Structures are given as C-alpha cells and as structure tokens.
Amino acid sequence: MPFGNTHNKFKMNYSAEQEFPDLSQHNNHMAKVLTLDMYAQLRDKETPSGFTLDDLIQTGVDNPGHPFIMTVGCVAGDEETYDVFKDLMDPVIEDRHGGYKPSDKHKTDLNAENLEGGDDLDPNYVLSSRVRTGRSIRGFCLPPHCSRGERRAIEQLSIEALDSLEGDLKGKYYALKNMTDEEQQQLIDDHFLFDKPVSPLLLASGMARDWPDARGIWHNDNKTFLVWVNEEDHLRVISMQKGGNMREVFTRFCTGLTKIEDLFKNRGHEFMWNEHLGYVLTCPSNLGTGLRAGVHVKLPNVSKHEKFGEILKRLRLQKRGTGGVDTAAVGGVFDISNADRLGFSEVELVQMVVDGVNLLVNMEKRLEAGEAINDLMPEQK
Amino acid sequence: MANSFTRMITGRNTAVMMAMGAGTLASAFLLNDSTAAAERRRFYPPSADYPDLRKHNNCMAAAMTPTIYARLRDKATPNNWTVDQCIQTGVDNPGHPFIKTVGMVAGDEESYEVFAELFDPVIKDRHNGYDPRTMKHPTDLDSSKVTSGMFDERYVLSSRVRTGRSIRGLSLPPACTRSERREVERVVVTALSGLKGELAGRYYSLGEMTEREQQELIDEHFLFDKPVSPLLTAAGMARDWPDARGIWHNNEKNFLIWINEEDHTRVISMEKGGNMKRVFERFCRGLKKVEHLIQERGWEFMWNERMGYILTCPSNLGTGLRAGVHIRLPLLSKDPRFKKILENLRLQKRGTGGVDTAATGDTFDISNLDRLGKSEVELVQLVIDGVNYLIECEKRLERGQDIKIPSPIAQFKR
Questions:
Q1: How many CB pairs under 8 A join A and B?
Q2: CATH code at A112-369
Q3: Are B386 and B366 in contact (CB under 8 A)?
Q4: Does the beta carbon of A61 lie under 8 angstroms from any beta carbon of chain B?
C-alpha cells in the first residue's frame, strides 16, 4: 500500500511467531529462504516509502507454487527494497540467478556492434525474432506499491519521452482506458495488446490495482518497437520483427533504449540501475539485464530428440510455447530464449541466443536428412 | 499550471535532493514518517490520487467526490487502515450496468466512523435511505414471536437463515494480520467447543482437513473455497489462504459456521423441508449461546445501536440476515407479475447456487432484500408471510384462478 504503511507498526503488537506465515506447503524461492529468525529481524523495517516485509512476501504466501516450477515468491515495492531487505533478497537472488553473490558485479553492454553475426538466422525455420526488457524510473515506487498519483506521473513522463522519438522510432501512445474498439482490435491483431493480468502470482502482489488507470501501449509506426507502460514494471520495451534478423532487432532495441534513456535524463530522470544488480525491476527474476531475447523457431525433429532438454540446458536457453511463458508448443514451433538475466551482459545473452539457435537449426536440418547430431553436441556454457 | 505540474511529476527523492541540496541524499532515506507524509501531500495532492470513476456503477462511485476524498485520504483508523484501502475493491471493479455493487469495505469497526463521510451516503443508498446518524436499528432474536413458520412442503424444498458476526477488537478480513485472523479462529473455535446437545459439533480447518472430510463437506454443500470473485479478492480478504480458515458444524448437520471467509464468522441454520420456524429458533438459540461463550472469555461481537451488527461489507450491516427458501413455483415464475410481486413483498430471487447463479428449472432461492432498519424477527416474519403469499398465488394459478399483486410493504419505522 502506498506511502507509509504504519499498519506495520500495529502488527508489532503481535510476536513474530504469531505473525509468521505457514509456508509448509510452499515451493518458491522466498519460502525456501525465509526463516522465523529472518522474519523476526526484518518485520519492523520499512523502506522510506513504507514498503514492508509482509508486502514483499504476500504474493509468495498466497501462491505456494507448483511442484515442478519454482516461482520467486517476492516482489520489490521500490528501489530501496533490495537494500533494506537484502537479508532476504540476496539469498533469493543467489538461488534464482545461478549462484550470483552479493559481492558480484553485473556488466551492462548495450552496444549492438559488439554482437557477432545474428543477421542471418535461417528464415525457413526462424519465424520471428524478439528482444524485450524492462526499465524502472528512479524515484518512483514500483507497480505493487505505487499510488495512483505516482502511476499517472510515470505515464505522463513516458508519453512525453516517447513522443519525442523520431525517424524509424516515431510512433503513438494508446491509453488502455481511452482506446476505441478499432484501436483495440488492431492492437490485438498485431499481438501488442496486454490486458489486466489474471495470474494470481501478479494479482496477489497488488500490481493490478486501479486497472486500467495510467496503463497503455506505445508503438512506432512500423510496428517493430513497442513499449508497455505500467503493466508488471514501469516500462517494458520490446523490439520485434518477422524472420531471422536478430541483429537488426537487437540494434533497434539498443538504439531505442538509449534514446529513451537520454530523453528521460533530459527531463531530470534516470533509470533504476546499480553496478551490483544492473537494472532494477519489480520481480527479482528480471534483475540485471531484464532481457529475454528469443525466436519462434520450427524444431519438430530436434524437439523430439531425447537430448533436447540437455542441449538447451548446455546452451543456457529455455523453451516456451508460442503463447508465452505459461503455454505449450504448437506444431513443433517453439519460443527459444536465454534462460539467464543477471551476471551476463545484454550482448552476451543475445550472442548465446544467436549461436544457440543457429546450432539448433543445423541439428534440425541434420535430423531432417536422417543424419546424426552427436558431433554437434555443445559443451556447457 | 505548468510549474505545479512539473513539481508534481518530479520523483520524490529527486525533489528532496533539490530542496535540501545534493549532499543530503543519504539523509533523504532516513526521513521519518511524518516528514514523508508531509512530502507526499506536497507532491501528490489528493487530486493527483483521485480515482477515475467515470465508467463505474457502484454505491461508492456514486457517493465519492473530490472534496470527500481530499478530506479522508490522509486519515487512518487506530489500526492505520486508510480510505484508499476501503475503496480499492470499488475502484478495481467498476460494476455491472444492471447490478449495483457496494464498492467498498471496512477494515475494522472504526472504519465506519473515521470514514463516515463516505460510508453514510453509501449506507443510505444501499439500505433504502437508512440514515445511521439519526436512526436506530432494532435487534430482536426472540424466535418465539414468529408465526405461521411452517411451509407447504409440496413447494418449499429447504429453509435457511444466515448472518455474520465480527469479534470486537480484531480487524476485519480485508485488513487483518495473520495473528489477528488466527486469533479470530482460536476465539470462535474455543467458544464452539462449549456447545452441547443438539448444537454439539466439530471444527474442520481448511488447511488440515483430509480428502475424505473435504469430499463429505462438498457433498453436504458446506464447503467454502478460496474466493474467485474479483470483488472479494481485490478487497484483500483472500490473503494468506487457507491460513486460519475453517468450517464448524454440529453433528446434526443443521447448524454451521464459516470462519474467516468474507467475515470473521458466518452463521447458518438450515434444513430440508419447510420448517422455517424451527430453523430460525435454532439460529437464535445457537447465536445466543455462542455470544455467551465468547463473553465468558472477555470477548464480544461488534454491534452498536445505529448500525446493528458490524460486518465487512456495508450491505450486511444491521441484521446481516438473509432468510430464504428453495421453492418450486412453476406457474408463478412464468407469470409477468412475478417480479413486481417479489418487489412489493421486499423479496429477491436467486438461482439455487447462490447470489451469482441463475435458476434451474422452476426452483428458486427466495429471500429478504433488506438487512438494516428491521429486526431479525421482522425480516423472518416478512419472508414467512411473503413465501406463504407466493405459495397461495401458485395454488390459485393451479386452480385457474387469478392472483393479485400485493401492496408494497413499508420500508422501516421512522
């Protein structure tokens, strides 16, 4: 709840044992890490805007998780959350991001020139290429905790910045609450429209409050660069196009992001970033680069290979259905993207996707021709 | 205009830096609560936070004005519950063009006082002009006063009376901490274990029940589950599910209590058939016994003479009572005057699955519309008289005779 949760002080009338959540059925990162001692230590703390431990963990308490999928189970309400509650956040981050330590430094590299190749993923297999990330505006609370006034201020700032983009990036903003039926249908047909979340993981964190106030979608006239405002993060930035030219997608991504960052800076604002956590976002799983670079690719043969899972793991890639994170693959077409977010730079992650997808397509061609792929098996990256 | 807007959209910490000098950035994070609150008022005046209610159709949206919001935004109850938290469910759920929902909840007993400026018009709107500032609500749980409470069982399949009760001193489901919720469970379950004879029973904690127990409770139509309605989840009452939630019922299976669902407790008396008098008698007896048992331990129910029993949703103030039957009315339900007859009798129809369901076949759930301004005895009598009238109409239609729309019943004594 925004701006001063003194309800937290009222809870101090009860002991830590009385307040400690029952996590016995739970399987998420927060539940694995939170002990009664840690709860007792942290429960009287709050960030300057009043975000508390119970606010942080509510989504993880309400959503025990799945026996097979490990969700994070906690969110940040503002930038200071990661500092004030580091005793909980650091082990969660370490667990989620492959052993990333509190002393580790994260490298940011948004220079698309540093990418090797990537402009010629075989379009007979690679149907589309996409890169997304998120950005938070320093000084404002994050979606689980922000007030209506803050959310509207974020929207206003974003509109002003995006309206100044030119050339290939020139575009238009569509506020969710004002769009006409035609605009809405067009955005659905373009696969751009986001809607009020239904996932209890998101709803329980409070990020859907006041929907659709101050939420909207901006995209350029060419429909290759898209920004979501006030969904799960302040901004989600997406570059995408049909075909296999990931290099072009990533170049536009970096150019657009850098331009947007400059436009915000000109107005006295910057993105939340530090050299340990990289870009700071609502969910700890998106720290660092917040980057998911992926393709929709036809792999009907490779996907049936017994070592498919192992190959992906070694390439540090993950598969999803073409409907996104909670869907299954249809017709042998998979969404293949980087598994990591933190501890690798943007260029490094996109390089992994480019190299990995090239390898998978080669494997697919071999299997089509009835040949073996043993000699192509990759090492663990 | 441009200047104030720029100040408004400057981030909190940046503005503090500018005001206090860059070197004091470190101390900005150590601001105590009162300064943070004052700062917020400067950069985000109530007008910046005022909800957009233009597409909304609920009682809260109808009553809310920028002036009221400005006066209430920075207030809090002694438990530090705010008006934004009261109205969140109404902001998030604009409502249906045909159904007017309430659109706000209380976090504690004091909410109704601290935010009276908003609750009072909502109560008036929902309860037919009842003014809690000037009127008194009658409480009467003397079931012996009820007459003709035995329905023709060729028409009435089952009879049921429900209400809710809140434990004074503990926050309500939207606001309560885990400790408070567990305390409610402890207080109520301890009291219920003191019930004897026809009322003796047992408690099933939602988190701990076995699969077999769960199936039995489903078969008996006793089990409640985590709410899916966004009206309820947006109010925050489903947090920490299923911690400290459970169902108690007596061995006879005709007296049932839900713990920590939408209210601290929901109390239900029900049985097959048409003996509404007996259902209400058990209801009153059970309620009085439970109240006595909690009082022995120093607790009491939330109640005052202006609003009666205090519950989470303003729609349930007063008696919190819904007395109803499942009744077959194949001919009457097809008569075009059915709706008007119900309206004048101050009854409402629902499907037999409850408030959001449609009727199957010719069987309806018929119950009282009103909750506040009339006593429990008055409301149950109203249902008894009304249902008897409906059965009379059905019988007349069976015989080919005509029926009459009754005169409207008076709202409440002024």
A1: 117
A2: 3.30.590.10
A3: yes
A4: yes
